[in-house]
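assembly run, all chains below
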Amino acid sequence: AQTIHQWPVAEIKAVGSPLSLGCTIKGKSSPNLYWYWQATGGTLQQLFYSITVGQVESVVQLNLSASRPKDDQFILSTEKLLLSHSGFYLCAWRTGGAGGQNTLYFGAGTRLSVL
Amino acid sequence: GDSVTQTEGQVALSEEDFLTIHCNYSASGYPALFWYVQYPGEGPQFLFRASRDKEKGSSRGFEATYDKGTTSFHLRKASVQESDSAVYYCALGDQGGRALIFGTGTTVSVSP
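ok done. output:
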């Protein structure tokens, strides 16, 4: 069975400080990986996706960047946090394939508070 | 661009009430449609999906039917329980393959 692990579970950071959030998926080779952001009480906004190692596509940047250093790992980062970065960050995976037919499976998320 | 609209922002019910959440989409062709449920502090969980006109998806007593004519995928449950209290999201499969486009979510609160 596939498992997706996000770290850390929660972060409290100061404005202007750097950030690195991680996501690892086990039990699935070459998954498509995604980062979503959710403001408190808000909907899910896709940030980035990656089909393969070393390749990341941006959907909405929000002054963030993403990288895929390994087949099973997806990293979200920034050098300078803004207050607007606060929220819930979700990593997700799905099997590859054409179109948007395949189901997206989410991790448990990382709660970020920027003060 | 493609989009999903959920009509109800919040729904308050009593146990054993009937639940309906309206979801309409705007997209060409036959995009896949999904329902997800999110409990506080957790990631969204997949409920079910449908990919063809008149196809019915169902899970945990929830169901929805893909209707190309009315571009809808309304979520229904005949008898809700307190444990069904959560946020429900309708989503549309992006036909460019990027991911899912989510609606704004509907908060369902069920009182005993």
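The first strand of chain A starts at residue 3 and ends at 7.

The mean pLDDT of chain A is 91.

not gonna interpret more than that til we talk
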